[in-house]
Amino acid sequence: MSNEQLKLQQLLEINNELEQVKDVDVLLEKILSVARKFVNADAGSIYIKEGEKLQFRHTQNETLQKQLAPGKKLIYQRFPVPISHSSISGHVALTGETLNIPDVYELDPQKVPYSLDRSYDEKARYRTQSMLTIPLKNNQNKVIGVMQLINAQNGEGNVIPFSEEDTPLIRTFANNAAMAIERAQMTRAMILRMISMAELRDPKETGPHVNRVGAYASEIYEKWAFKKKLPEKDVEHYKDLLRMAAMLHDVGKVGIKDEILQKPGRLNPEEYETMKQHTVKGARLFDDPQSEFDEIAGQIALNHHEHWDGAGYPGYIDLEGNVIPGYADEHGKPRGKRGEEIPLFARIVAVADVYDALSCRRVYKDAWNQNEVSEELKKESSRHFDPEIIEAFFATVDVIRVIADHFPD
User: Fold this and answer.
1) Are 98 and 71 in contact, with CB atoms under 8 Å apart?
2) Fold of 3-181
3) What is the pTM of this model?
4) Of 217, 173, 286, 233, which Cα lies nearest the Cα of 20?
5) What is the DSSP pairing of strand 99-101 with strand 80-82?
6) pLDDT tens digits for 294-337?
7) Are 214 and 240 in contact (CB under 8 A)?
8) What does the domain layout of the chain look like in residue ranges?
């Protein structure tokens, strides 16, 4: 098999992998990872078109990653880039053309309108040299984003220009990636529409809130799984499912009366018992699961208010609200699940949800500062929360705080 045939075979396998990923943020990470591997690029970024601007959405840099401790992630802020000829990514988005530049520091302003903003290199102490910038086009040939691959390397690790022979294949990959991104964006939009129904009833259930909880949960799980040394393929798979399923943790609130959901003061005991039913109502939406996603979403909806010490709710009840035989307490009420009786993903979402609730302003309270939030989570370790999940949370808290900026209220 020739080298070109081998790369074509790799491309087909990669496309099959992309079709399995459903969440857009997990997908962008996957796309960039496999594209970099395909052309042996040290770094890369993906921008997604939003209105008349490109939004910087994901970046990777192997050189900078190696400077971090094992398991740590690069921290980056999202920012908009004008779609214009002044920047390389903006020019590609505007023209739909691919640019293969041997050395971006050697661009001649007399010959091309675009240039590299070197401030990013200066901040990171990195030298961008070769760059392959490809438009992400959907099946209507519309540009929905841009992918930049940076610093191709030879077998000795030296930076070289990107091969012109790889350009047609990587363009094909980029087009397939664009269609996968659109599918994932549609999935995210459908979930957010479900959330919007809950938001009409409960002002706390907003799109930014559920996006943050989903993203936090995904990061916490990845850190937990890294410490457990779980297979990378399994971690990618469950990160994808968890990122979406966590967003639906409180969807059962659509079945709770407005006078309870929207009550400005504290709920009385009877009202609180009614509010607790949102866990069962949410789980019912995923009864008779048709997929692993349904199963995980149902587990999270039902169990994310359980406590590690057994003091949470709804406890051992079926989806009709009946106590499961053998699990009643001395008063005949359902015993709370405790410890590892609580599904893993529900234990993770419990931490993500409480962190977000404490960190954000609500009509009934001001946002807590980060020191107060940290102290509360530590205090509740082994009571409300799984101590291993709390440990994973604090191991990735720097990433979590940046995510909060990505999805502001």
Assistant:
1) no
2) Beta-Lactamase (3.30.450)
3) 0.89
4) 233
5) unpaired
6) 999 999 999 999 999 999 999 999 999 899 999 998 888 999 99
7) no
8) 3-181, 202-406
